Amino acid sequence: MGGKRGRTRTTRTECAFHLSNRGRGISNAVACGRSGGGAGWCLPSVNSPAAPVRAGTVFSTSTPSRLPMVFDHCIRLVLIGVCVATARADIAVTVSVDPASGRTAISPLVYGVNQDLPGYAATARRQGGNRMTGYNWENNASNAGSDWMHSSDNFATWVMGIPDAQANVPGIAVTTFHDQSVAAGGAYSIVTLPMAGYVAADKSGTVMTGQVAPSSRWKAVSNTKPGAFSLTPNTGDGTVYSDEFVNFLVNRYGSAAMPNGVRAYSLDNEPDLWSHTHARLHAAQPTCVELIARSTDLAKAVKRVDPAAETIGFVSYGFNGYYSFQDAPDWTAEKATGSYRWFVDYFLAKMKSASDTAGVRLLDVLDVHHYTEHNAGGVRVSDGVDFSNLDANKGRIQAPRALWDASFNENSWIKQWFSEFYPYLPNLKAAIATHYPGTKLAITEYNYGGESHISGGLAQADTLGILGRDGVYLANLWLLHDSPAPLYAATAFKLYRDYDGAGGEFGDTSVGATVSSQENASAYAALHGSSGAKLHVVVLNKHYDEASAVTVQIAGATRYTRARVFAFDAASAAITERAVISGIAGNQFTTTLSALTAAHVVLEAEGSSFAAWQAGNFSAGEIASAAVSGADADPDGAGVSNFARYAFGLAARGALSAPVASVSRVEVSGQKRLAVTFTRQADAPGLSYVVEGSDALSGGWSTVATIAPGTPTVVTVNDVVDISAAAPRRFLRVRAVNAE
């Protein structure tokens, strides 16, 4: 993930207090300034001369637009045209958010991809798919299987843009991929290791039916090399070694525990379809026993070379793989050996047993693929790019509900015949809890179609919210359609990972959020850690034709007074900032979302930011005037700027009734020292208080302590200098620094 972008604005508020050692008592003195240039804000004591007001940053907001009235029902009569207009109210939707409930860590890896999306820096990148089953790292040959004439060729390097002259450099198809992950800010890389027994030996095109493995067109794969590893593999020994490949990557990048290491290895790809997709590599249908043996052996090899790497299996293609390993020949017999509802249970239990025997966890992540089977408008909604099929578009928007919502009637053979395994995520998580607790859950391929259409954008945004809320560890979108450009799919990711174009992110802790109508809306809410300073709510209006009047109700004692709104809709795949919602009262507000809109609402707690403080203490007209509500402004002429009032928890308006801070003498370890007491904000991201000391007001300030917002709000900081011996004069000052 790329680093943060955009500017950091730093403002400082300074106060200096001095105490004479000649018995003159305590008095307050004020020193104003700002390092790095720009305006400063001063905190004089009561009755001090007013600090100068300088031009500062103007904060502006606007009131929400009025709810639109839609007129329709035009009735035409014979001979006389009469148009009767009736007002159609927006669909009412209630979103209930409880920041104290349902707290679940959101894995950043759910925002992953298989193919890079335009303008989006993914958190996780996977090098997988059918090609990797036959990938030979020694010369980068791979086989397409049934995807393209069972061709063995140079596709693995071609697709990465590697020149033909370098196409035989060992491992270059993978190292180029991982180099891209590192360059993108250290995205979590997943590399797929072949496990079916053979890989492509050459790049000579189609493997004929008479050349099924074993033959000269294939090389055998062994997970364990009997001799020493080499960074230059022996291409003439007839065998490709998986552990040697992992060692090659560790030698180049460090282990998975290092910043640039390859983090995870997939135990092949969709083994339940080997005999279909790769009939000339693994012609026989794989058995359950075979899969466990191959998975165990490869996982052991990975863990011996890089114990920190995560292993991911069994990378099933879809539901019948989950259920019976694609009707494996030995499934009926193997199922009878234990209490297994479906093959997922069996796989987890057998991998746990193998791990217990080996003394090391061999399966870190259970991985299944999920391509929606929902049908609407006469088609599977993930198929094609014919967006004139409105029923299919509407069905696509609803399809992600099958992941979690038991009330959703997915129109599929799965729901019809295997409803006991529906919805999918609760059943997968239950299998893990029963048969191999602690195993993480991944969906490294999924798609709902419509990547270039608003319906696909909404489905993708909905899916990301579900995955984060429901505790999925890792997920990677697989593009089914890259033309037209998948702009809506990319924008759905950015709604969570870069909603403001400056690196703004959805929170990392999911909290409770419900909607009054799952068919018409979805909502997801999150905080950053345990801080309630900002509450993020993603709301989707899924109605195809009508706007929604969305009422958001927030539980708890934290009061939210202002919200910024970022959204995309059917008119454009670009995220734009909408009207600021200000003057929120009682933790409830209503806003209108047009049909087919995805919005990211960023709520600011009262007092948690200067902008929120402004919104709670000034009218819209006053906020528009920097002379009244600006950070430097002192609208009441009390000698205290607005920013100082905000930072030190002072009354927003009027004269001050008590000093801003107080200075006292204390005794610490037999020394006499100064101490300053002041009030801080309880929860304000980006705000800090720097206490500094000096022997002269003119300069030489050094940091005594840096204090973050928190509770109790009244804090006392002791100086570090003994004023009875070392300092004939001593001054303390407090600078409030806002880097939000």
UniProtKB/TrEMBL annotation:
Superkingdom to which the source organism belongs: Bacteria
Classification via SUPFAM superfamilies: (Trans)glycosidases (SSF51445)
Pfam families: Glyco_hydro_44
Residue ranges of domain Glycoside hydrolase family 44 catalytic in the record: 141-373
Protein's name according to its UniProt entry: Glycoside hydrolase family 44 catalytic domain-containing protein
Organism: Nibricoccus aquaticus
